[in-house]
Amino acid sequence: MFKKSVILVIAAVIVVSVAAAAFWGPAAKQRTMAREQNKIAIVYIDGVIIGGRGQGSLLGGSGGTDAIIRQIHEARDDASVKAVILRINSPGGSAPASQEVADEVKKLKASGKPVVTSMADVAASGGYWIAAVTDKIYANPATMTGSIGVYIPYANWEELYNKIGIRQEKIKSGPHKDILSPDRQMTTEERAIIQTMVDDLYDQFVTVVADGRHMDPAKVRQLADGRVYTGSQAKQVGLVDELGTMYDAIDGTAQLAGIQGKPQIKEYGKQSPWQMVFGSNSQFSLENILSGQLKNELPITAPLALPEKW
Amino acid sequence: MENLYDVLFRPAAAMRQIAAARMIGQAMAAFLLSVLIPAVAAYFAFRTGSMAKLLSLVLVGQTLGSLLFWFCGSATLSLIAEFFGGRGTAVGLFAALGFTHAPRIFAVPFLVLAMLLPGIGSTVMTAIVSLAILFWTLTLDVLAIKGAYELTGAKAVLVLMTPLLVVGAAAIVFLVFVGTAFLPGWGW
Questions:
Q1: CATH code of A263's domain
Q2: Are A72 and A105 within 8 A, CB to CB?
C-alpha cells in the first residue's frame, strides 16, 4: 500500500510537470529566442593572411581566407546576428587575399549589419587593409598597426650557386617569364616592371584606406610610407577610432547595433586543441617541427603579389 | 507499481527478482513510460510553429532508437557477461534492463524548473539533472547485470564497459593507422 502511494505521488508530480511544460514551455522558449536574437558575431583573423584554402593537413585545409569568407557569409545570413566584430591579430600577408576579405566585409556592411574591428597584438598591412573598410576600429594603445604599403621580395642567389657549382638555365617563351628568378641579377627593365606592379598595388591600398577612413588620399599617402604605428599613434593620426580591449569593442558594437543589455556572443574561427596539434598552419604542427623550414620562406610582413613558390 | 518502487528505492534486490521472474511485459511497460513521458514533455515544451513536425520526428526516432538499443544492448551484454563467467539468461537481463530507464521520468519536473530559471541557471540545472540521471541509470544497468548473471559488482561494471573499451581501442588503432598512412616521406 505504501509503495503504491509513493508511486502515485510520483505519477501526480510527473503529470503536473508535463502540464506545466505544455503551458509554460512555449512562452519560456519565446523569451529565450528573443534573448538569442541579439547576437554579436566575432570572426577571428589570426596569423598570416593567405588566400584560398590555405595549407593541407590531416584534417583538411586550414588557414586560408576561404574559411574566413565562409564565416562572414554565415554571420551575414544568420538573422539572430545583429553585428559583427573582426578580431584581427595578423601582420598581413597576401594582397589579393586581404582584398577579397575586405570586399566581403563591404558586402556584409551593405546588408545592414555594423562591422567593427578589434585589433589584438598586431593588425598591420593586410590586417589593416581589412580593418580600414569596417565601421569602427578599436585598438589597444600598444597594438602594432599601420604598415600601409606593399613590397615584392626578391633574392639573388647567383653568387651562392656559383660557389657550390650550380648552374641553372631556362628555355623561356618570353624575356620576362622568369622575372624575379633568384638565380640571376634582375635587369633594369624588370625592376621597372615590378615597380609598376608595386605602385599599382600601393594605389589600391591607399584608395581602400582613404574610402574606408573617409580621409583625403593625399593625407593617407603621407601616413602610408610603410611605417608601423602603435595603437595610440594610430588614433592620433586618424587610422584608428578608439583605444580599448575587445570587450570595449563589444560594448561599442552593441551600441552601434542598438542592442539593449548584454549581447550574446557567437564566435567563429577559434581553433580547437585538436586543430592546434594537427593543423599544418600552426606553429605547433608536427609537419613544421619534423621537416623544419626547408621551404622557400619569404619574410611576409606586408602585402605580397607573389605566390609562395615558383 | 511495486516493482517500479523497488527499482527506484531497493534496486539491487529488485533487479534480481525481475531477472529471475523474467517480467518482460512489465519491463516493456516501464520502458515505454520512461521513454514516452520525457518525450511528450519535451514536445510540449519545445514545439514552436514549424519546429513541431521536426520535433515529432526526432522524438519518434529517439523512442525507436532506444527500443533498438535496449534489444541489441541486452544481447551484447548477455554475451559479454557469459564470457566473464556469469550464469543467467538473456531474457532475464532484457527484462531487468527494461526497468533501468525509470530514472528518466524524474528529469521532467526538474527540466520544467530549469525552463523557468533565467540565463545560465537554466543551463547549469539541465546539466546537473542530466548527469544525475545518467549516473543513476548506469548504476541500475550495473545492478541489472549483477542481478541477472550473478556477477560481482566489479565484473558487472567491466561487462558494461567492455563494448565502449572495444570501440575505443578500435578507434585508436584506426587513428594510428590513418596517421602513419599520411606522414610525409622523409628525405635528405
A1: 3.90.226.10
A2: yes
